[in-house]
Amino acid sequence: MNEPRESFPSPSVIRPESPSKPTPTLAPRTEVKDPLTSSDSSGNDISSPVEDDSRQVQLSQELSRKIINMVELKRLASLGIPDGAGIRSTVWKWLLSYLPSDKGLRASELAKKRSQHKHFKEDLLNNPVSFS
Question: What pTM value is reported for the model?
Answer without folding.
Answer: 0.53
